[in-house]
Amino acid sequence: MGTCPALWLFSQPAQADAGGHASTAFWVLAGLSVLQGVMILLLQKSRVKYKRAQNSLEQAKASLQARIEERTDSLRTSNNQLTDALARHEIAEELLRETQDYLHSIINSMPSVLIGVSRQGHITLWNAAAERLIGISSNKALGQPIDDIYPEIAITTDTIEMAIDSQVPQTLENIQQGTGSNCRYSDITVYPLMAEELGGAVIRIDDVTLRVRVETMMIQNEKMLSLGELAAGMAHEINNPLAAILNNVQNISRRLDPNLPMNQEQAAAHGISLDEARRYWELREIPKFLQHIREAGERSARIVSNMLEFSRNQYRDHAPTHIPELLDNSLELAIHSMQLDTGEDTELPNIVKLYAQDLPPITCSAVEIQQVILNLLRNAFQAFQQQEYGPPLNPTITLNAFEENDWFCIEVTDNGPGIQESVRRHIFEPFFTTKEVGEGTGLGLSVSYFIITEHHGGTIGVESTPGLGSSFKIRLPGTPSH
Question: What is the DSSP track for 186-246?
Fold first, then answer.
């Protein structure tokens, strides 16, 4: 039925009991019906409210869901952007590391020493060449004052400040460090950094030892060429008076000869007894004096002749040469050269000649072989002047020439101070010398090695014992011994 139970109940006529009153059951049922109707109304109202609440909740849920999705999309976008930014940052860091590694590789691959310094002289850069030169790692050098790490450097803080303030590089050339064979030369330049706010500089050190030695060698060669021309000119000039002296000595000896008819005629014309005159001459040792004059003149003539031959480059073609004679000529030149350097009163070493008999001539460049022998003899003479040469003071040089199978051998031996092993290993290297600066170029033995090995197909070596002496042995291709 469509009518509410409570209304239906009140619309029915009440049934009276026997006393004329409505029955109790009727009213109980009526109350229950009313209560049921109220509950139904309340339930319907509750359902409506629930529905409305459910609808509101669903709307809120939908709104929240939309907001969550919107926020999630926003967070996802931000996260993607952050991920891209991090990726770009990592790429930038990787590129920066690669660039730094590349720059460090370039800096460390350079042969020049590169030292970055602040205005106060504190080290900011220390490349591999600096580590090799100074023997200090970059970890220890960075941040330290350059004067403490590299006190030998010829750069002061004033020079660094001048380069930075003026923005002009400051250069020092041919700075010498060490002496003798350890002598090195460097060019040092201080370059100011282009970014003035950094306020620093870079010190570049280049080893120019080879350049300085080549320049010295060129100057020395020019001097030698000039001396060679001067020696040749002097030799020609000296030859004329020497020839006159020798001719006059010969004429005097002839005019003192009692067996010549002309001398007899002149003596008889003046009433002079040649026998008495000869006894007087011999008593006064005049023939001995004349012999000394002749020997000195002939020795001087040989020295001049050797000088002329040594200065003539056009005679360097290979030709048959008698080595013992060449050794004697070289020895005379060496002794004369030593006396010019140290004085006539210098005590000469003992000379021992051990030439094998009947040595055949060998084909060689006599002038070049003589140059080699002179170098060896000069070194031997100078060895006796060294402080290391101590007792027993019996300086001796031995010249030996002999055949050994298919080789012709020349030995120059001395009992001087000898050569240390550390020096002997480098003795034939160009520019290697133990002499002070200005006393030698370090080319004598290297040139000798080149002459023997390249020009003559031979060998040259040295054996030495410190304190006992040295022996140089030259082997030249020769006639097989029989």
Answer: EEEEEEEPS-GGG-EEEEEEEE-HHHHHHHHHHHHHHHHHHHHHHHHHHHHHHHHHHHHHH
